[in-house]
UniProtKB/TrEMBL annotation:
Pfam families: ACT, PDT. The record marks T188 as: Essential for prephenate dehydratase activity. This is Prephenate dehydratase. It comes from Paenibacillus contaminans. It is an enzyme of class 4 (lyase). The keyword Amino-acid biosynthesis applies.
Length: 298
């Protein structure tokens, strides 16, 4: 049975989305406490694949994870899927004040969650629990676990977590407010990385991710890179600059291209970009799955 590393503990969005996309029958899911460990597990051969959240509709690219993928670990991207990050306020219902007070959440003074999830719920928190103290932890499910453990040792007392329905269920906690993200289209893009070929259903949507570093002092270099795609009518679905971390003002471009490296046009575009003096590294050429397709087949 193939093993898949995900950010734990049990009940994260990563786990929820992987169970939905990959099912739990053919795979054993293994949780790791930090994203660095999630990558390392597959590099070391403890697991076959790792699940990496890469971009969120509200919060944008998860820059730590992009940087780990590009700079630290050379694990190819094998697949991509999109999954709704439905975040809930989770805690003990004894902490809710009566509706007659005008604000049932006023008794909550501290929230635990991973910062990327807390910022997805900015408007809810500002409107309902202004000034709440927010403590960043390693994942949504870690926050839920802390709330459970604090509740068991001290009893309920004004603290809550932001996390999944799955985590609330696993810990027997209450959903104090449901689906509290700033808008309802809060999807997260996940990628599967690893060195083996996973058994996946076919998809007619293929994507290639490349990292391009421009030569220094080359006026119009980015324009020429984009032209190599444009005149071949190759569509880009994402382009983002990230620091190379080597010196201030030095960047690479993370580019998602629609289509496969096996096509005729894409390798030709890459060869043209390399001829300009750019460095090009392919991070993977892989099938993509949207949520409606996954849900229909789950
Ligand atoms: O903490 C989790 O539940 C995770 O799976 C991690 C993660 C992320 O780091 O982007 C994944 C998706 C959610 O939008 C929030 C957090």
């Amino acid at each position: 049975m193939k093993r898949i590393a995900f950010l734990g503990p049990e009940g994260t969005v990563s786990q929820e989305s992987s169970l939905c996309f990959l099912g739990d029958k053919e795979y054993e899911f293994v949780s790791y406490p930090q994203m660095y460990d999630v990558f390392t597990a597959t590099v070391n051969g403890e697991t076959d694949f790792s699940v990496i959240p890469i971009e969120n509709a509200i919060d944008g690219s998860v820059s730590l994870h992009v940087d780990l993928l590009v700079n630290e670990f050379s694990l190819p991207i094998l697949a991509e899927w999109v999954y709704p990050s439905i975040q809930n306020l989770i805690g003990y219902k004894q902490d809710l004040l009566p509706e007659s007070t005008g604000n049932p959440y006023a008794g909550i003074s501290k929230i635990y969650s991973i910062p990327v999830a807390t910022s997805q719920c900015y408007k809810f928190l500002r409107a309902n629990i202004p000034g709440v103290q927010s403590e960043g932890v390693s994942s949504t499910a870690k926050g839920v676990q802390i709330v459970k453990e604090r509740g068991e040792s001290e009893g309920p007392g004004g603290f809550a977590a932001i996390g999944t329905r799955l985590a609330a269920k696993l810990h027997g906690l209450d959903i104090l407010a449901e689906n509290i993200t700033d808008h309802q289209n809060n999807y997260t893009r996940f990628v599967l990385v690893g060195s083996q070929t996973p058994a996946l259903r076919p998809s007619d949507k293929l994507k290639t991710t490349i990292v391009v570093t421009l030569p220094e002092d080359f006026p119009g270099a980015l324009h020429q890179v984009l032209s190599a795609f444009a005149w071949r009518r190759i569509n880009l679905s994402k382009i983002e600059s990230r620091p190379t971390k080597l010196k201030l003002g030095s960047y690479y471009f993370y580019i998602d291209v629609e289509g496969s490296l096996d096509s005729v046009l894409l390798p030709a575009a890459i060869a043209e970009i390399e001829a300009l003096g750019c460095q090009v590294r392919a991070l993977g050429s892989y099938p993509c799955y949207d949520y409606d397709t996954i849900k229909a087949e789950a």
